[in-house]
Amino acid sequence: MKYLVLLCDGMADYPVPELGDKTPMEAAHKPNMDKLARTGTVGLVKTVADKMKPGSDVANLSVLGYDPEECYTGRSPLEAGSIGIDMKDTDISFRCNLVTLSDEEKYEDKTILDYCSDDISTEEAKILVDYLEEKLGNDEFKLYSGVSYRHCLIWDHGTLDVGSLTPPHDITGKPIKEYIPKHENAKKLYELMVKSYDLLKDHPVNKARIEKGLRPANSMWLWGEGVRASLTPFKQKYGLNASMISAVDLLKGIGKFSEMNVVHVDGATGYMDTNFDGKAQAAIKEFANGQDLVYIHVEAPDECGHRNEIENKKKSIEIIDEKILAPVLKALEGYDDYKVLIMPDHATPLSLRTHTNDPIPFLIYKKSEPAKGGVFTEKGAKDSGLFIEPGYRIMEYFINC
Asked: Could you tell me if 103 and 212 lie in one domain?
């Protein structure tokens, strides 16, 4: 038996007027998903408990069968593991976004114009993060570069008691005054953010970006704090050899800590320009090499939701269906039997531009055992009457159904 998990990050949504009051899932042309749904099982799953923040960290842990209330130690430690940082027990890690801030004189009066600095390239970002590390790094704080706008700060002998640190994608377009770190223990963190703006605003990389009509990555923004992560190996939990395919450090980190085979795909970016074909071929190769389960994570729908890119979100679902699902299904037909689980991790409604913890739709298909079928949309999943809660039971349900 082969198991495919196709995780379409943030795919679930609310009806959109510009799409004829349909959700992107309803409006998208996704013949392969719809075909599986007709003889598959469709339902709803609550991946994020109401008392937890609806981040991709918590949600993907749930999908993989880990109870976030037991194992979640923060977002950034998972990303730190992917980057290759061997955190000490006394370390606190933070996600460090390279963001675009407006140019008001006082830092606190600025507005977040873009949480990802126009998808700054990994090469440009590394130059900027290395420069910040050179100027700001010391025995207490150290910066590490990651992918695109996503990086990491390690605070030696730091504290988690820093108050509320807000993800920048939640406040894009808003003045930062109400969201800057105000806790006394976060004073040093805020000073780093202010200093980063002074260092980056006139950096040659940013001057070149401005000349090209691109937004500058003119400040770091810190959030997602946590301590060293630890997960039970996936094979120990389920007896399956598993692989993780993703563009983002968060999922690679989860894969690393759960001892999955983490696969690098050239050109995987986490957005609409990602290497969809490469992800499909990587999955096919993993199955051919003997892996039992392959988890393909695609970030594009989530990014489009954060940016309120209505047509792109619909299009991203269509591309996933055509360029990833279709070829992988064709390859899976060469095996005696296989199962497919397709779902988002959480909803990222275009109207809100951030995550919610609404129950989200899932589709399970088993080649050898056709089910009663359903409609793979938010409404179709709700109408099915099948509801799984807590969300971390979805993996066990998928494997054993």
From this structure: yes
DSSP secondary structure code for residue 138 in this structure: -
pLDDT in tens, 74-128: 999 999 998 989 999 999 999 999 999 999 999 999 999 999 999 999 999 999 9
User: Per the domain annotation, does 361 fall within a domain?
Assistant: yes
76/225 Cα distance (integer angstroms):
6
Write the DSSP assignment of 228-292 as a string of letters. ------HHHHHS--EEEE-SSHHHHHHHHHTT-EEEP-TT--SSTTS-HHHHHHHHHHHHHTT-S
Q: Is residue 376 within a helix (H) or strand (E), and if so which, with residue range?
A: none
Cβ-proximal residues to 142 (8 Å cutoff; 6+ apart), any chain: 133, 153, 154, 156
Domain that holds residue 141: 82-226
Against a cut of 0.85, is the pTM above it?
yes
Strand order across the beta sheet in which 387-388 lies? 261-263, 242-245, 293-298, 2-8, 338-343, 360-366, 41-45, 387-388
* CA atoms of 356 and 85, how far apart (whole Å): 30
Distance CA 232, CA 277 (A): 31
CA distance 124 to 130: 10
Total domains, the chain = 2
Q: Is residue 76 part of a domain?
A: no
| H/E element, 1 | none
Cβ atoms of 330 and 22 within 8 Å: the answer is no
Same domain, 179 and 193: yes
Distance CA 86, CA 192 (A): 23
Domain harbouring 266, CATH code: 3.40.720.10
